[in-house]
Each structure stands twice: as C-alpha cells, then as structure tokens.
Amino acid sequence: MDHKIIQLRELLNRKESEKKPCQSISSGCLPLDRHLPQQGFQRGSLIEWIGGGVGSGASLLGMLAARSACRGGGALVLVDRGQSFYPPAANAYQLDLQNTIVVHPTTEKDECWAIEQALRCSDIAAVVAWPKRLTSNAFRRLQLAAEHGGSLGLLVRPTTARNESSWASLRMLVSPSVGRQGWRLSVELLRCGGLFGTKPIELEIDDQTGEVRDAHPRPLAAQLAGTTPDPRKARA
C-alpha cells in the first residue's frame, strides 16, 4: 500500500510540473497589482469581488480588470442578468464595446450556464458576471471552465456571499467611502495565494478622469528606500 501511495504521489508531482505556467496580467489597477503575489491576475482563474451593488466600486474594479485582460486580444463577455451594464460609462473607461458581448439570462440556471460556456471558449479573454447565488458545485464548474478556456473569470458578488464557499483563487472585499479628492475604496484581500485577511488597501478614484491611485501614497524618498518613514522623525 505504501509503495502505491508513493507511486501516486510521484505521478501527481509529474503532472504538476508538466502544467504550463499561467500568464499573469495586470488587474487594471497598479496600486492593487503591487499587493498581489504575481503582480496581477492569472489567466484561467476566477477572481471574486465581494460588495456588489450600486456605488460599491466592485463592478468598476471588475471592468478595469476586463479591459486589461482584453488588451492582448480576445472578446469580453458580460453576463448581466440584472441588466445593470451602462455602455456610456464603460466607454468612458475605454472599454472596447465593439469587442464586447452582453448576455441577459432570465434565470439563475441560465446565468450559470452562460458564464460556464463563455469561460470555456478560448477566444474569450474575460468574462464579467454578477451572480447573486452560486452553489459549491456550480462554482467548481466555473473554476474548471476557466482553467479549460484560459480566460479570466471576474465575478462581482453581494456581501451575503462572503460566508459562502468559493473556488475563486482571489477574493476581495470592497467597501466604498467618500474622500477629499474623489471616490475612495477600501479593498481587503480575503484570500490571495494562500494568504488570508491581509491589511486593506486604500484606493482613490478621481471623479473627473477615472484614475485609480493610492489614497495614502508614501513620500517619494520612502518609496525609493522601500520603507515607511518614522512619524516621530517627521515631527522632529
């Protein structure tokens, strides 16, 4: 029995080594990229934002990631059961509408089917969807579909989904607030590359340009040194 277990382990290790490395792409938000282990997202994976709803900022981050994923070619599919997609706003953020397919399923079953089929298509670079409910089995099917097609699955979920099981490789909690210079978001990495519950990232969105930046950027000297300045020295 022990010999068979060793053989099985060797076979699994061999299969793992034969896997092609996943291509990393920017999240579309440079401040967020700096906090991610791969400096971006991996194609063939699912990314989940918790905090869906009007004004949450989760949909905006999903669209920025989709725009980034489609820069190298491939179509964008939006599975928009709630019909909340607003083309003029997407166009303002330089989303390629001519290369975008919008699907309006009417039932939860059709919604899951549409997401899965889109993820399985190798000609699709990214899929954005807003599923309110996903069973563990349905989520697993989406994860396998993303791996098969090599596309990026971007799921915007309501806050009620935080305590549900997830097959996403990266989960983020997005909380909006109002800043002095514009719209501010707090992004907490709930799960990322084996890490859980990291310190929230504060982002600010310029209302005029749509630029996403650090809400509390460090002084240039501290950035070059790679350290955070000591506030006691700053007061001296």
| General shape | globular
Q: What is the assembly state of the chains in this entry?
A: single chain
- As a percent range, the share of helical residues equals 25-40%
Total number of distinct structural domains: 1
Text of the CATH class: Alpha Beta
The proportion of strand residues reads 25-35%
What's the architecture, going by CATH? 3-Layer(aba) Sandwich
**Distance separating the two termini:** 69 Å
Secondary-structure element pattern, one letter each: HEHEEHEHEHEHEEEEEEHH
CATH topology: Rossmann fold
- CATH homologous superfamily grouping: P-loop containing nucleotide triphosphate hydrolases
Low-confidence stretches: 15-21, 218-236
User: What is the makeup of the main sheet?
Assistant: 10 strands, mixed
What is the typical, i.e. mean, pLDDT?
81
Number of strands: 12
Verbal overview:
The protein has 236 residues and is an alpha/beta fold. The protein has a single domain, classed as Rossmann fold (3-Layer(aba) Sandwich). The protein contains eight helices and twelve strands. It has helices at 2-18, 30-33, 58-69, 87-92, 108-120, 136-149, 220-225, 231-235; strands at 24-25, 41-42, 46-50, 75-79, 100-103, 124-129, 152-157, 170-178, 182-192, 195-196, 201-206, 212-214. Strands 3, 4, 5, 6, 7, 8, 9, 10, 11 and 12 form a ten-stranded mixed beta sheet that branches. Strands 1-2 form a two-stranded antiparallel sheet. Strand 9 (182-192) and strand 10 (195-196) form a beta hairpin. The longest helix is centred in the first third of the chain and has 17 residues, at 2-18. It is globular. It starts with a helix and ends with a helix. Mean pLDDT is 81; it is low at 15-21 and 218-236.
